[in-house]
Here is the input.
Amino acid sequence: MARILVVDDLPDNVTLLTFDLEDRGYEVVGVYSGREAIEAATEQPPDAVLLDIMMPGMSGIEVCHRFKDDPRLASIPIILVTAKGQDQDIIDGLDAGADDYVPKPFNSRVLIARLETALRTKQAQDALRQANDQLAESNRQLDEKSKRLAELNEAAYQFVDNVSHEVRTPLSVIKEFASIIDDGLAGEVNPEQKEYLGIISASVDDLALMVRDMLDISKLEAGHLTVHRTSCAVDDVVHHVRTAIERKAATRHIDLAFDLPDDLPAAYADAPKVGRVLVNLAINAIKYAGENGQVKIWARADHEAGEIELGVTDNGAGIDPGRLEIIFERFQQVGVNARATTQGVGLGLNIAKELVTLNLGQMRVQSERGKGSTFSFTLPMAEPARLVDRYLDRPELARHGLAEVSLARAEIQEDCPHAAAREMDELLSDVLRSSDLVLWVAPRTWLLLLERSGPESQAVVKRIEECRQEANRNRPDGKLPPIAVSCVGTWDMATQRNVLANQLHETLRSIEAVHA
Ligand code: ADP
Here is the structure.
């Protein structure tokens, strides 16, 4: 039952109102002066106040002010009861915070209807305020949780980083001494011993790979995995990892073949990470190819799509179609037998897919039970105009909701040596996140596409300069040259994707024209 405070210096008015209101089921507290009204409300705040304006001593206007100045009373609705012709009082009362007014002589039904409206409004406001408070509290808790999660991720990363360092050091010692023995430096080695040494070495490689996969996963989670995409020859990438793959194939007696066309165009990718992907896929193919296994590593250019596809095909047992999706999830291994005969923790494909995505590519798999599997991935060709479109159309960008992309342009002086430009390119990649794109568009010029708001990209500009100065503190000679970075603008991807794309294409054409 709502409590109504009725304030009027004329006892008859109070009695009349009390009578009508109690009749409607309200509880009424009647008082005869402003001062009493404040005392009664302070003692027990009512749900609404019916307030006469013209009273000796403290006027209704003054009572309104007192209510609105007291946080405990401020939200209580006040309805002024005014005499005819007191327009200025009405204005002053509403100014002082009253919610409504009823002129005298009042009709009780009208007054009660207005009172009920005021009470409903107050109820709705209270509910809204409560909902807002709850929302603010949930947001605060969420903030706290994500902060805690970020701390945990960071702690997990530090732990994995330390452990992997501790594990990798003895692993490289084992590998080195196995190699010394294998080379005959510690005495003659018979063919059987040589074979065993090969197994030791390949197992060490497996373990090292696994440790690196784990480290990369935790780096990804903690947001520490940077990506350094540059124009690179696919041949070189394959060449770098070829020996390790060949050694592994030899220990498993797998027939390994490479099929790479001579005229492959350059890719725009992080070469070591592409190498990692290829090793992971090749090691799997070798592991799962089985007796008389054949594994082929191949590449082809798709000029229409502007991409290069790199693949690994084996003639092993294949994978059930229903499981092709889940094998890319972490810690997913298909079949108990696989687990018994191979070492692995189910991270290889997951990290391979993540690394491919970082390289703006796509992972593909085709497999048929009993016939074998083909795992392949695409890499963008090093063509800035197409790269830009690819970056703007990444599915991840759409997934991040109302994403904004900012564009910045970075330049070093024309007379800077190429080596300095290369180091600058690395520094830019280190400072930016993997969701940003560093495009080295001319010998001394970069375009930076940042998946960030305007203010965030200004912070990036500052960070680049800080990192350059920090790097230079550790370089007594051959300092990194000054770099001028300017923010061009920020575009909302939901509505302005094409505006940005056009601007980028225009900029690229003008840079190309200058350097033609
Ligand atoms: P791991 O090899 O450590 O188990 P991966 O993430 O590399 O983990 O692979 C996940 C699962 O996918 C493997 O357990 C295996 O069942 C399946 N798989 C991967 N590559 C092949 C392949 N070439 N042929 C058959 N199965 C494969």
